[in-house]
Amino acid sequence: MERTDAEAPGLLKPGRGRRRAEDVRHATLTAAAELLLAEGVHALTFSKVAARAGVSKMTLYKWWPSPGALAFDAYFNAFQATLAFPDTGDIKGDLTTQLHVFVDLLNRNGSVIAGIIGAAQGDPDLAEALSTHYVIQRRALAVERLTRAQQAGQIRAGVDLETIVDQLWGAVYHRLLLPAQPLTKEFIDQLIANLFQGVAPGSLDSTT
Amino acid sequence: MERTDAEAPGLLKPGRGRRRAEDVRHATLTAAAELLLAEGVHALTFSKVAARAGVSKMTLYKWWPSPGALAFDAYFNAFQATLAFPDTGDIKGDLTTQLHVFVDLLNRNGSVIAGIIGAAQGDPDLAEALSTHYVIQRRALAVERLTRAQQAGQIRAGVDLETIVDQLWGAVYHRLLLPAQPLTKEFIDQLIANLFQGVAPGSLDSTT
């Protein structure tokens, strides 16, 4: 996998013709994600990614404004499948499934993920990349699923769905970034129960 | 205010006798909080704090295990009054008051606070200090107020109060650290409404 000719014109493969843009993008994102998880966001440079992916550094400069932008694009890409929002038609079940997977991921790679988010604070370029290439896209996917649930009558009309994102995934990030209580599946179940049932007395005693 | 004799034996004041430990602690935390808000957590050293507070560096070494621990102690101390948890007997009103003040603070000093939390990721000493000297204490104060509300019958028996902390303050930190949506008072009101009413259909339509 690893190539030493980082500056080689990777788009031209002798005997195999020009690599398709899609293949180059895939190879780049895979290499970037591997480097990111192995060494953290500060270690990610265009040179290292180009060498590992076997593509030219010029291509990376053309496609991504900064290594930070590439990092979050790679991060988003790597976790998109794992963190997909299922739709079985049962919003509470689907949220439970997705958030259990998220907690599993954080219990494995939490310190790398916290390091990435931490590095983005106080680094405006990285913060911009985190927001554009990760946060906004992830929120949109969550809100999309919640919108279908609201249309299906499983979430009250009038409830602000963006706020639900902060009360589920934001609550989980809180335990990652300001640690004090454990990140467990029981915690996820409590998050969902509190939010759907409500914590006030007289709120639903038996939930669907 | 600023003193240049950083190494002077600050506990002995000619003509005024020994400064009381409480005064020294107060002067140190005030100086540390000022430096923290002005220059960020990385700029905070025992030397600078000692010079500004007019206390000996030895005293700081004796009382705080690291500059990070001092930073969070100062941070906690500085915001303890501002971020107090009021108790008028009405939990929803009191949470609204406290969280509106919190959002105001973040809209003024958010980038400094995000920088402190960001720096703690990937720095185990700072992370330990953040947890011990800030997060655990803040959570305990919040849970204390929520416990009284639960005893007063304003929160259902059986609801896990630690989880509520993540769904209110954690949700707010989420918008600070992974920015995409605004930190407004309307957001706070939605957080509280969602959590108390519940978002499921059939949950409380009219809240107390």
TrEMBL record, chains A, B:
User: What does the UniProt keyword field contain?
Assistant: DNA-binding, Transcription, Transcription regulation
* Membrane-crossing residue ranges in chain numbering: none
Listed SUPFAM superfamilies: Homeodomain-like (SSF46689), Tetracyclin repressor-like, C-terminal domain (SSF48498)
Q: Residue ranges of the HTH tetR-type domain?
A: 22-82
GO terms (molecular function) for this protein are: DNA-binding transcription factor activity; transcription cis-regulatory region binding
Which residues, as ranges, make up the DNA-binding region of this protein?
45-64
| Name assigned to this protein | TetR family transcriptional regulator
